[in-house]
Amino acid sequence: MTEPITLTFAEDYSDVILLDASDEEVKAALTNTDGVQLFFKGQADAVLCTKKSTFALFSRETSNELLLVTGDKIRACGAHRVIEPCRVLPRLDQLRSILASNAVTDLDEAQSTATSQDERESDDETGRDLTTETQRKRSRRSRAIKIEELLERVQASEEEVRKGLRQLGAVEIAPGMGWRVLSRSVEEKLISQFVLELKAQEFDVVNGELKEADMIQWLSEFPSFAVRSIYQKFVDNDRLNIAAFLEYQAESLLLRHRNVTLSNFSRLLKESVPDSLVVSDPMEPLKRIGLISEDKLSISYFPADALPKDPRKRCEALFGVRPFWSPKDLEAFLDGVDGGVADAVQKYARSSTNAAGERGYVKR
Hints:
- It is a single chain.
- By secondary structure, the chain is α+β, with helices and mostly antiparallel strands.
- Among the domains are: 17-88, no CATH class; 95-181, no CATH class; 307-364, no CATH class.
- Helix content is 41%, strand content 15%.
- It has helices spanning 24-31, 92-100, 107-126, 132-140, 147-153, 158-167, 184-200, 212-218, 224-234, 242-256, 262-271, 311-321, 327-334, 341-348, and strands at 17-20, 39-41, 47-49, 54-59, 66-69, 82-88, 171-172, 179-180, 235-236, 239-240, 259-261, 290-292, 298-301, 349-353, 359-363.
- Strands 2-3-4-6-1-5 form a six-stranded mixed beta sheet, with helices on one face. A three-stranded antiparallel beta sheet has the order 11-13-12. Strands 7-8 form a two-stranded antiparallel ribbon.
- Helix 12 crosses helix 14.
- The longest helix has 20 residues, at 107-126.
- It starts with 16 loop residues before the first strand and ends with a strand.
């Protein structure tokens, strides 16, 4: 017979909660079996982050598998006594927002900032005093964000933050200076020249191997850090990420032409890509950034990333702009919500048939 175990609480037990640890990664983090660190991030809508994953925290009345957690780190979770972690996508909209507020808008300025790093190090080594005006000029420069600060501010694990930096094309302009992204206008300038070079080289973007060194050479008029940003954002394993590239070009067109007809959009998209890239379905890149009118004649800019992560709020937003959605379109715009697409559809939408006899979803 197993001997009973006596649990002794600390004198101040007001911060003790019950945390559902049925997820193996959470359990490993809490019990320290594999050295994984555990963080609670945020005051409102706090999340739990291990080294690799992000979990939303939900209040529950009961749970089948619980661990006691105590300490100051859980105070951000609120006053709930039973907390269940639910694996979710990282809050990379926070990362995007932080980096966008410090984006490179002037390549020459950014290059001079990188060059001045050597000057700063030299100043530190020699102890030379900087003039007030020099200090003022440097403080006006957009600030690069160090990884330590991003890990504190972004509700995502370290692995997810680093992956997000790559997806957003963030680069360190100089070693140790922190991370920055290019502004949209600077990116589009490089992409436009990149497309011209691909056409001039008659490069096979579908099958051709694309090396970073080649891209830097083709775009030698631009600083190498800017080219590295574009390469990082659109090239995977020395191959052009065609889906990401087409979505970017489609988004650029929608930003310039806020309400464009389908025929014009199709023509403009084909003109914006290298000749070797055949755009068989111009509507495919629009599935998360564009809203096709109900008469199917025009497209407007409607980015899914700007919608709430909360499934109920996102469904309210979607059904607010369109009462009837096809399964394919609704699922595309629900991709990325907390709890997953299937759960959101089940809770906040119901199957219906429109006047044309098409099956789809309406608001529940």
